[in-house]
Task: structure prediction
Amino acid sequence: MIKNLGFNFDNTYADLPEIMATKLSPIAVKKPKLVILNKILAKSLGLDLSKISDEQNAEIFSGNKLIEGSSPLAQAYCGHQFGHFVMLGDGRAVLLGEHLDSNKQRWDIQLKGSGKTPYSRSGDGRAALGPMLREYIISEAIHFLNIPTTRSLAVVETGEEVIRETKLKGAILTRIASSHLRVGTFQFVAAKQDIATLKTLVDYAIERHYPELIQAQNKAAALFRAVMKRQVKLIVNWMRVSFVHGVMNTDNMSISGESIDYGPCAFMDHYDTKTVFSSIDHYGRYAYGSQPIIGQWNLARFIESLFPLLDQNENKAEQIANELIKEYEGLFADQYHLMMKNKLGMISDEDQDKRMMSDLFKIMHKNQADYNNTFRYLINGKFPNEKLLNDPDFIIWEAEWKKRISKNQNSEKAYQLMMEHNPVFIPRNHKVEEALLAADNGDMSKFLSLCEVVKKPYVENTNFEEFTKPAPATDRIYKTYCGT
Ligand code: AMP
Ligand code: MG
Result:
């Protein structure tokens, strides 16, 4: 047992009704080796990991040694995967427990890649080094872009091989989340038709994430609306920075409103709403531009799972559900419009704003313009070798935009908004791949550089110029993989 490193476990999920989880320990690995430890995150959690050796950290974050106070378990959940309902659960993850930091904030500490569980189905319960480092870097990037997300505390190599299309190095990621409650968690209880547990789960989620709703008259409806609002904000934020989640199954949609489960995700370079990276997403279900509607589809599955609690009268429950899910469209449209106004430095409301936004997107698409660099160009006038700048339509658009923002009362504030909403640095796909390839060969230097680059995404830095460029034309067809 590991003691005295600042871990302060207070495990509430473990006390939920038995069907919600299976208690079990991570399966020990052969030869754990620390690959990366997020020291800044550790410190912010009040963990004192610098005083122990890399070897000891590797023992902890492989699950080979358990920390005092942990109460390991695999969570049960269901999910609609690409539209099909499936019984799932943590098939390769173990929740060690909930850590309370010095502000009494509660954090799940989960090991991903920790071995088989009763929910593994045909999987091996393990994960490979590349995908775990990928989750590490993308989740950190999303965090520093000011978007709610799970975070990554450590990656440990296991010293074991995992068999995918080829043999890969095994690894375990330590994931930190405000919880791992998912839409799929509610679907699981609803599928069991266990109304008492469903009520308990609603109360639990409210207490953990939305304590202001404890007194709500209709708790299920109130919880739904609160989750919907956070999910709308989250998806709008993804759209803002060109993030494509890639696998928005209902088991990958969190109740807390954090981005979760970084599988085949990636950032879009050239603006195209049909952008898909995932090798298995043949019909573009989770394409960049489909994310808003998929968000609503997933939330419809969430409200369905809450049905028995909305009203005792079935017709009334259906009416409440329909009204709630309809609110999504207005909420999304308003949040999206505000986000775009911020990106374009528009403060007042003018009649032409909406049209100008859609005109810009048409022009960007026609010119295959780099999404993030286009918005930065509007701030700093720099855009190397971009076809867009010579397009007469863009020249006219830009002139109109300049006139439009001159109507702002406060030009300093407009500039500030643009600076805060348009990143200079995103983890570009070719840079991520380059770093992962080197890391797999034991050279972490590129990965560590990328970790630095993503830390201050809104601040220009001439030292990092190469990280602002999209992939070379020869390298544009980027594919990502699930089930890694
Ligand atoms: P994901 O696509 O990562 O959201 O995973 C979907 C489901 O498949 C979850 O229940 C995972 O726990 C499970 N899963 C993914 N990979 C594996 C694996 N290698 N072994 C066992 N279960 C897995
Ligand atoms: Mg998942």
Summary: The chain has a mean pLDDT of 96.
